[in-house]
Specification:
Two copies of one chain form a homodimer.
Chain A lengths: L3 H17 L5 H7 L6 H13 L3 E2 L8 E2 L1 H11 L8 H14 L3 H16 L2 E7 L6 E8 L4 E8 L4 E7 L6 H15 L9 H9 L5 H18 L2 E6 L13 H12 L1 H10 L5 E5 L11 E10 L2 E11 L4 H20 L3
Antiparallel strand pairs in A: 1-2, 3-7, 3-10, 4-5, 5-6, 8-9, 9-10
Helix pairs in contact in A: 1-3, 2-3, 5-6, 6-12
Chain B binds a DNA duplex (30 and 30 nucleotides) through helix 2 and helix 3.
Chain lengths: 342, 342
DNA sequence: ATTAGCACTCACATTGACAGAGTGCTAATA
DNA sequence: TATTAGCACTCTGTCAATGTGAGTGCTAAT
């Protein structure tokens, strides 16, 4: 469809525009790149490219600007030769992570930070906690005469707890007996499975106290909810202001408003649960408010399970090559980190 | 020091400027407020006020703008008649909280949101988790042949856990014995007290396994660290852009940069651990980067313990009256909410 | 003590001229 | 037939000149 020369010129325009944020003119191209072509020829080609929908003109007698369609082509053709990070950048990432990972949360926080730092754009990281951990056993730890702590241990070694009411005067022995029985009956179930009905069934097989049942239900519900919680980490909102397209305060306000709504951010990130890297350009985005932005998004998994999603959000004029390279590297890096049990 | 008329005029200027963000001129004052004074007289008074340091002139032949000193006076004189929220606003706050409080975190999140909504400024909320809870008992829950879960229960009913290594083949009975002994020896201690030395001492009284001791140390350290963690909640960064003083992108960038550095925000909020409400105006702020802003800050407590700090940060031209009213109300409201155990 | 009047200052908006960068078209050229 | 030189034209951004409006300070009159 596009001959080599057109393709070459288009690429030059895109990369030039990405770099300078200024409409690119024929003369500039001829001067900067040694194509052996006069500005006039280039003009003709550009005219064609505009007709084909790859270029746009902000106004007569301005240079030209790549269209969403052009970026699409650019990004797609990049898939074959993805571009690599410099040794320097990789070292930076490695050392950054080495220094500050203490908890799971730190991993996500660092990811957000690095993404925004290296790409000069906003980063969004969604930590998925939709756990598929299976129930292993539960235990009651006495607290006072009428209260105890419910501990739930899952097969991935995590545990959680909640406060429950117990019949006054229940002995430690009784509690152990109860928990042992229940553990046997519930072992291997998904945590989310242990809802009202199943719990009721199991419980009534071993005890009759209604108060305790009710508080057990409540506590387990809370734990299950917490375990399927999704957490959002943002980074680099301020980088936005370095981008010329966000010199307009209205636009910044718009985007900041979106980023502040945690629910919206979650929706955006959850939408892209595809495999691998996904680039959405301009109006390809389905969410109002970011239709004039581009987003590069990747989902990372552990043993097939989705652990989280990371994304870079910025103007359509984005350094796709660099962004994709960073994401690819981070992606691989994180999967190895997550492999080691923390 | 200031006679009544000067005081009155100064107040008018301050409130007018807070409302319009435009330098206030003598003629405007005469027109808007029925003082029975001609512009010329007002001009003379304004001239005096400028000499006294209460007013500033952006340039000759512009109106005048209140100085930090003027705001100081304004805020101080407000202490006597603090200003109250409208019934409407109070209802708004009440219903907001009623709807979304499920966990402790929700309280802080909501606080941040409301503060920024109602004041049109950035809000910062610091949740203090510097717990003074005392150790109650610990328990080991077997996980595998070489690992167990350490549960630590404190006297406030909270509990925490961590993974530890155990000597291969340790029986449940042995674990119970060990935990019982240690619990007895440690009961009543502050969590942070149980550092290396004390733990070592207690542990060596009951067992000799070095591997287990090491991993115990690590796990308890982690738990103690987590319990003294402080969490920051922000709200309304986008409101900033509605303020005329933040039409300048550079200034926004500056402030956003600060807000993104969690550590800096913590420092700022921790600095004001005074009692009650604290207003810092302009250069009264000790932190570079917000020296051209004002901050209203309140610390809330529960049984004398500091639970958190909330603050509103904005331009020196801030609706102090409203902000203070909101903070006062929230402050009281939160203390009653926090009273009820969650 | 207050005020009317006046000269003066400064920011800001408007206008017009002009340079710079770019385009499209046509005719000449390889 | 593809390329290019040349030219007229268009649009933006900048700069200087100018006028307007809001405000001040001072002086003299009330």
């Amino acid at each position: 469809m596009l001959n080599d020369r057109k393709r070459k010129i288009l690429q030059i325009i895109i990369e030039d525009y990405i770099e300078t944020a200024e409409p690119v003119g024929s003369r500039t191209i001829a001067r900067k790149h040694n194509l052996g072509l006069s500005p006039a020829t280039i003009r003709n080609e550009m005219s064609d490219l505009e007709l084909l929908g790859y270029l746009e003109q902000p106004h007569t007698s301005a240079g030209r600007v790549p269209s969403a369609q052009a970026y699409r082509l650019y990004v797609d053709s990049m898939k074959e030769e993805p571009g690599v990070l410099t040794e320097n950048d990789r070292a930076l990432i490695n050392s950054w992570f080495k220094e500050r990972i203490r908890s799971m949360d730190d991993i996500f926080k660092s990811t957000a930070k690095i993404l925004s730092r290296m790409t000069q754009n906003v980063s969004l990281v969604l930590a998925n906690k939709k756990s598929t951990a299976r129930f292993k056993y539960l235990k009651f730890l006495p607290l006072s005469d009428t209260q105890a702590i419910l501990c739930i241990v899952t097969d991935d070694g995590a545990m959680d707890n909640g406060l429950i009411d117990i019949p006054a005067g229940m002995s430690a022995g009784e509690m152990d007996y109860l928990s042992g029985k229940m553990s046997n009956l519930l072992e291997g179930r998904q945590l989310t499975e242990i809802t009202g009905d199943l719990l009721q069934e199991v419980y009534s097989a071993v005890s009759e106290d209604e108060v305790m049942l009710a508080s057990l239900k409540k506590a387990i519900g809370k734990i299950a909810a917490k375990n399927s919680e999704q957490k959002v980490f943002l980074g680099g909102a301020k980088q936005l202001l370095n981008q010329p397209e966000f010199q307009d305060v209205g636009r910044v306000k718009n985007l900041l408003g979106i980023l502040e709504e945690e629910k919206v951010v979650k929706d955006i990130l959850n939408a892209g649960d595809d495999s691998g890297l996904k680039v959405t350009i301009g109006s390809e985005n389905k969410f109002t408010g970011i239709k004039d932005c581009s987003m590069v998004q990747a989902t990372y998994r552990l043993n097939g399970q989705i652990v989280g999603t990371m994304a870079v959000l910025g103007p359509t004029r984005m350094e796709y090559r660099k962004v994709i390279a960073v994401m690819n590297y981070l992606h691989k890096y994180l999967e190895t980190i997550l492999q080691e049990p923390k």
